[in-house]
């Protein structure tokens, strides 16, 4: 039996689980996980936000479920068990979106299904939930989902603003009237490679400000 | 992590898989009616938007009944099939049949301004999966009154732009016949020539989707050629 700890729900340690992934332990810019979907869904801000929310829900709940089951999962098939839990949650999310938020589900289309293969989720299950209690695991899931979402939103902001001249579908550039002076949207920004370069710039910015992230040679 | 016996592992996996299977089938059964309803309403909204009638989830069924006067299924010779409901025909299944046996649905609609329009459904391939759409033709059965497209999983911001108004509205008043010959509408990379009746702009970054859409419009409408020439006024 586990010893029941008298730890407040949001102790300093638990708060770190939530805030670290936003900055110094960000899943995309520091752990370099989940890059693939960061490229695919960041052309527009709206799908990026829905994707961020879906991933947060899935990673938090699967972390919770795996942490609850962690003592009864046989080590030899743990990856399969993790996959089954993730896949089940993703299908449930997808079915619910189709029934109750049909428009959003159409916009995200295949990317909801692809959450199953998002490395952040498996990474967190393997690295955290298998060895920790349910509540910290749940917080870790929320934190990592939010850290992933934060980068997604930053990247999609720049890609939509520079590539399509709009923010959240609102045509900012057109309203400012800059097209009349010969300004043109940068078509490069909506192509996948520019997402990678944007992520690279964010990593550069983050490391320039926080020297402790730079590896020792 | 302690070692578990093989027996435990097998029982564990069986229990896990069976309970997940039951959970998911229950979910699917419970949510299916709602999902099917969503699909039906969406199809009606698509058909309506091809005749430039704006509808939303709440009034689509009602507006559909008001505007769509008649629907029937023909073959490539332009002859009608009896007893087939045009609304339930799935084009993807039809396209696998030999050309002469394919059901080709036609919807006759009355637009807000009283014009009679022919609506023709289309289905083709994009980059990642199926794309489809509806094109409505004016009385001369050559001039496009409206077009609407949609897709299963084209890339957001690139190929997925085919279902946006700026792209769809380009098809207004384009013509699929030139001097009595069927030419369809071309989707031109780099921009259509201004004033050209048979060209629209492609989507930057969505070349394969644009090409797929062009092929879909051409191949889809071509099957109706006999019907269109027989009924031209």
What descriptive keywords fit this protein?
heterodimer, A: 217 residues, mainly alpha, 10 helices, globular, B: 233 residues, alpha+beta, 6-stranded antiparallel sheet, two-stranded antiparallel ribbon, 6 helices, 10 strands, 36% helix
Brief sketch in words of this structure:
Chain A has 217 residues and is an all-alpha fold. In chain A, 63% of the residues lie in helices and 0% in strands. Chain B has one domain.
Structural class of chain A: mainly alpha
The structural class of chain B is alpha+beta
The geometry of chain B reads as globular
Identify low-pLDDT runs of chain B: none
Number of domains of chain A: 1
Order of helices and strands of chain B: HHEEHEEEEHEEEEHH
> End-to-end distance of chain A, in Å?
45 Å
Give unreliable regions of chain A as ranges.
Answer: none
Cα end-to-end separation of chain B: 80 Å
How many strand elements of chain A? Answer: 0
Strands of chain B, count: 10
CA-based shape of chain A: globular
Strand content of chain B: 15-25%
Relative helix content of chain B: 25-40%
> What multimeric state do the chains show?
heterodimer
Please give a structural write-up.
The complex is a heterodimer of chains A (217) and B (233). By secondary structure, chain A is mainly α. Chain A has helices at residues 12-19, 35-40, 45-69, 78-100, 102-108, 110-113, 119-127, 134-164, 172-176, 192-209. The mean pLDDT of chain A is 85. Chain B has 233 residues and is an alpha+beta fold. Chain B has a six-stranded antiparallel β-sheet. In chain B, strand 3 and strand 4 form a beta hairpin. The N and C termini of chain B lie far apart (80 Å). The A-B interface holds A 40-41, 43-44, 47, 72-77, 80-81, 84, 88, 91-92, 95-96, 98-100, 102, 107, 109-110, 159-160, 163-164, 187, 190-191 and B 1, 3-4, 8-9, 12-13, 16-17, 20, 23-24, 27-28, 31, 34-35, 38, 42, 128-129, 151-158, 160, 204-205.
